[in-house]
Amino acid sequence: MIHLGYGFDINDADVLYYFKKDEKTKVISIFLREITEEIIEAVKKIAPVKPILFFYVGKDESKESELIEAGGISVLNYIELFDLAKIFLWCPEPKGSNLGIIGPSSGAIYLIVKEMRNQGLSLAKVSQEHKEIILDKVGGSTCNLGNPVDYWPPERFVGTKICEIYNTSSKTLLKDDAVDGLILALEFFIEIEFGFSIFDDVRKAFPEKPIIAILIQAEHEGAKRVIKSASELKIPVFENEVERAVRGYKLLYNWYSKIKKK
After folding, report:
1. Closest among 246, 103, 240, 241 to 166, alpha carbons compared
2. How far apart are CA 163 and CA 161, in angstroms?
3. Higher pLDDT, 5 or 113
4. Which of 9, 82, 93, 161 is the most exposed place for a label (fewest CB within 10 A)?
5. Which 8-state DSSP code applies to residue 85?
6. Is the pLDDT of residue 189 over 70?
7. Which residues contact 104 (CB under 8 A, 6 or more apart)?
8. How many CB atoms lie within 10 A of CB 199?
């Protein structure tokens, strides 16, 4: 993190070039009060190599459009410079726009699907084999196509059963060639809480597919434990921020798609 202020003889463009060369820097986030031609030229050269997220607080919309055209990734607010950077830092390249969803209720799933429509993302159509596994092992209100997985009401209202559902569903969906990435919606309260560390094995088994978690109305202490475990596993987790999580996947997909065209 570098804060320049107005007192130095280097500028934002100089810093961008520095981060381009720095091997440990994988993602760049930048807060801008003004957009200069130097910054635009720097982003044009660096964006195909490393993603550059930016948040601009100035008034020059034409310059902001130029920066986006140069390859900069515009975020909606300041905190997204950090939250969405985790997706770019921790998630592998998405191979497509078709997602699998596992959620605790139709309400949570519909929230995700609505934002997917807004972002031009689709529900993956899983194979007959994997559909049958999910319908047989999960139950609940699960879509008869096998995706999305809506496990409510569970057969037993205990953490071990919910853990089994997420474990089976995650591995089955990610194993399917039609699924490019996975969105996990989680309601964590004491009766159904389970160790999020189960996703360590899932992530290692499918390192080529992004996994993003969303906490929906989780109890405070449970949410803290999930966020801690997910961060250790390098799985991005968003608390009550469905739209941000889905949009983050789309931005990641767009960036990889763009650099492949160059």
Report:
1. 103
2. 5
3. 113
4. 9
5. H
6. no
7. 150, 151, 152, 185, 186, 187, 216
8. 20
